Amino acid sequence: MSASSETVEKRLTRMALVRKRFARNKLAVAGLVILVAMFVLAFVGPFFGKHSWDSLDFFNLLQPPSREHFFGTSQIGGDVYALTLRGLQKSLIIGILVAIFSTGLAAIAGGFAGFYGGKVDRSVMWIIDALLVLPSFLIIAVMSPWFRGRTWLIFVVLLAAFGWMITARIIRSATMSLRERDFVRAAIYMGIPARKIVFRHLLPNVASILIIDATLNVGGTILSETGLSYLGFGVQPPDVSLGSLIAEGTASALTYPWLFMFAGAALVLTVLAVSFVGDGLRDAFDPGSAMGKKL
Amino acid sequence: MSNNLIEIRNLAVSFPSEAGVVQAVRDVSLDIRAGEVLGIVGESGSGKTVMSLAMIRLLARTASISGSIIHDGVDLLQLSDDAMSKYRGKEISMIFQDPLSALNPVHTIGHQIIEALQIHSEMNKNDALKRAIELLEIVGIPRPAERAQSYPHEFSGGMRQRVMIALAIANRPKVILADEPTTALDVTVQAQILDLLKTARDMTGAAVVLVTHDLGVVAGLADRVAIMYAGKIVEIGPVEEVFAQPAMPYTIGLLRSIPRIDTVGSSRLTSISGAPVSPINLPKGCAFVPRCPAASDVCTVKTPELVSLSPTRMTACVRQGEIFALQDAGKLFQTGPVHVAPETTSDEVTLEVRGLTKTFPLMKGVLLRRRTGSVYAVDGVDLVLRRGRSLALVGESGCGKTTTLIEILNMVAPESGTISILGRNVAELSRSERLGMRKDLQIVFQDPFASLDPRLPIGDAIAEPLGNFGMSKADQENRVKELLELVGLNQSQASKYPNEFSGGQRQRIAIARALALNPQIVALDEPVSALDVSVRAGVLNLLAELQEKLNLSYLFVSHDLAVVQHVADDIAVMYLGSIVESGPVRDVFAHPKHPYTQALLSAVPIPDPKIERTRTRIILQGELPSPANPPSGCRFHNRCHVRSTLSPELAEKCSVVRPEMLKIGTGSVACHAPLK
Ligand SMILES: Nc1ncnc2c1ncn2[C@@H]1O[C@H](COP(=O)(O)OP(=O)(O)OP(=O)(O)O)[C@@H](O)[C@H]1O
Ligand code: SF4
Ligand code: SF4
Ligand SMILES: [Mg+2]
Fold it and tell me: Which pTM value belongs to this model?
């Protein structure tokens, strides 16, 4: 089929519209740029430093930022610049992956449970209730010997697996009421399969909840990850994450501010950027938002 | 002194909103005369409610109000809240559209009337109770002493509205404001309430301000009518004169755009283009300019004032004189095609329903839920729809119309009975055949605000079924364009979200989506009842045009008989889950045979004061019984007005034996009474 060349104005699909509306939101675009910049910094930055994160400079202990050590050094002579970037790598990936996995899982479980109702709903709700009453920390602790030494990505999966239930419940009740709406019934009578109804009609209509959840999850995960690393997996010392750097640095925040400041700033910047992007996405998806009206 | 009870002068009400200042009422001056019934008509958002709420000062705190409302030499707008509450209910009382939210759910009906009585007069409890029971009796509540102990939720909609009227007349007010008092009710109940309102007026001698969008109601009840558009009164005058010769273009269009049940055969509906304006950032000049066929340059420059046309009438139109002098002002507007029942259509049956039954379990108990009974939502329905024709399924709310439709659309074997679509029994369809059949049967829902996904651009919504049935992307684009043009929209609107369209446009989009797969049957569930009166005609004309062009079969579900008369060829009248009469629309409307059909038709108000006032009306007793506990024998026997004229044996039979559908003339009727 040849696309007619004389079509004056091409029809924009939802994805095209969402992209366009997102692009119009300056703050959101700035957020996205910052986020990309953080990734670049985390992965490319270390090549510009003079020390690697795991080498120790015994002649410079607890030195303030200098030419040699851009962000200063730690108590044992670690290069804070290299450590911060190393932590940023881990935390960015963990934060964003966990947010995507857990919110995604919540969306899918809640969306399908709400749409199908009946048996599917009962099974999903049973799993959710079971996971909610199970002491997740205890389980992780019991299982931790098995995780030891394995890739820290398991950690991401675990964090996501224990963090989706509340959101899934919210999504479930939201989709349950959406299911009764005529536009969903119209889709059913047009023969649209359930999978498409959930992804095309139900989830976009609860996009605001999902986006807020994902946004909060990024910051939350980065901070709570340290708590779990005490249990013996995740990011293990001597390896670092933003969380662990902040946890260790806070004690000496006033006396040796560089230990804490840079990791703290990286975290604040990441969380801010993510929330700008989240707000932008939310407005881009919501045709009622003032941002979108200007099209 | 004039006999004006209330003089409204230069009333303006506006609300702040995100999009700008909403000028809900703009410079309205109006007199309400003692003892008159003043009808206020206008589309949704035209400011009717805001104006009437301003009179009893019940507007939201954010409202800014200017002008004056003089009653008895006092400007109500200047009164303190305390002083105003002495007027409310005593001098001016109000009847709301939704009586459930206007009544206090935690107090008994009797308590609320007693309270209303005691606020405004020194009455002791016993006298007040006596008077309350008396009032309930006046408004037709059976066993009033007993019912006074009931709570609002124990009453049906019609009964609650009766209680509201009792409350409204309790203190013999001088003015009763009734805001859409019957909009939420079924026609047969509406007829009862309108009747009661008349009685209430006669008893109290109060002036009644009747706010409504139904011109038929105004034609029957009002002495004068005021038509509102975008916050302004654009025409006012005696009902007979305005209906006989409307003088402002909007009124002209409006009166010609409404379908009427009494004009069988001539189905021309005038359609007013465009959509009602929202009263935000209104430009200078006449607000009707974008839709007015008579608009000229002066209209955008000069803001029309409400000025006298004759001693009794006023209009707001800068071309007042010219337009009033026109011989046939109706020619100003476009009219739709004349819809003639297609005689030439084949006899091919596209949809056949036999003995369809659907019951819902009635559950009781909190811990152990068990089935204690059944709701007979649909109980033996027969329908036959032929190619290229429209079959209307009519009946009051709760009679099972929508359930019937859903059962058909589900395309699975019903509880009992059969459904055949295009000659195939749906019970025998395989999964993939059923999916294929969905192409042939599509639906348009009642509320276009609910039937389109708010987060899906309309182009995507229309393309959705196409993609689902495997059409290529490029073909989809062409088809979307074609469909949008078919329903009178254009390609450039495809990338917009539903919230950027008006109700009428949305319904067009929903129709385009339903037609995407080239269906042969389209189910229309009250397709215009959620739309503004002035845009209904456009959608109805479109439906008629499409049917002719595409040879569609319509299954048209509606409670609005006037609309049915205009679009349908055949009709099936439903009462409490079963069909009581069916046949060609023309014959059924001209000579309704079943007592229920007769009552239903006589209850529909006709927007013509001459006819409406001289008609004899059958006012039914009571309301639709609950389908969980349907009456024995003929389901209609407890409300039937014919039964009392029958011989005792026949009357007995009515309450014992359920009548069968029998072929009589061109139609079928289920009734024991001997019919001509
Ligand atoms: N409390 C409020 N705040 C803001 N805007 C309001 C408020 N109440 C009414 N409006 C606006 O004022 C305008 C007139 O509303 P109004 O309720 O009087 O219309 P109406 O003619 O009674 O319509 P309907 O037929 O739907 O009852 C509308 O645009 C409405 O959105
Ligand atoms: S003033 Fe002009 S636009 Fe308004 S109704 Fe009259 S002719 Fe039409
Ligand atoms: S069968 Fe009897 S009760 Fe029923 S409609 Fe006919 S006359 Fe009335
Ligand atoms: Mg209103």
Answer: 0.83
